[in-house]
Prior knowledge:
Elements: H1 2-19, E1 31-37, E2 40-45, E3 61-73, E4 76-81, E5 85-89, E6 95-101, E7 105-112, H2 118-128, E8 133-143, E9 146-157, E10 160-169, E11 176-183, H3 193-205, E12 207-208
Antiparallel strand pairs: 1-2, 1-3, 3-4, 4-12, 5-6, 6-7, 7-11, 8-9, 9-10, 10-11
Helix pairs in contact: 1-2
Amino acid sequence: MFKIQRLLLMAVACATVCSILRADDTTEPPLSYILEVDGQKFLLNADKTVILKGKFDNPKVTLRPSETRRFEHEGIAFDYPANFTFEADLDEPGIRTWTMSGNNVTLMLFDFEEAVKPAELIASTAETLNTDVDRMDPVTLKLGSLNSEGHTAQLKVGEVALSYTVVALPSDEGKSRLFIVQDLPKDDGQPSDEKTAILGTLEKSFIHKQ
């Protein structure tokens, strides 16, 4: 578990500082664009040709960047805000992680070559950060058609209080795939507005293919 703890420390530290697949699995998902032609909307991707169905006479045309990017990896796909930073770490033996960070929220997907439970990951994170788990409760996260079960906890890093939710995704036997939603809550302990918005996005966009 030492490797897990070391990796988690790097991820959490990066998220805290930020707050105050593709060919090789490491590149950021591309930004899409919305082309609006006389009220009709078409999704465009760079360097990909699309056919605009319909007849247009002196149309009014507007091109806007999409508000989200789409992450895809080994049967999992979901949208996340386009302004989030993106990082992939595939160098640790037995662990692969993808991190998407906003102002308050950090999303992390972990692929482990061993069985790791959500509660174990939270406890390991707290130990790595030399802090205590304030409270740990069972949680169910709605991710598309999945009702993913795990745990949520409050962790304190220095003067920063973090809400840390970890749920399990389907994985091969003997392995584990965990999805993490980390949040910097409001002063009253309520979820940040960014977390509320992204949970809605995940519920609508998350896909898991068997």
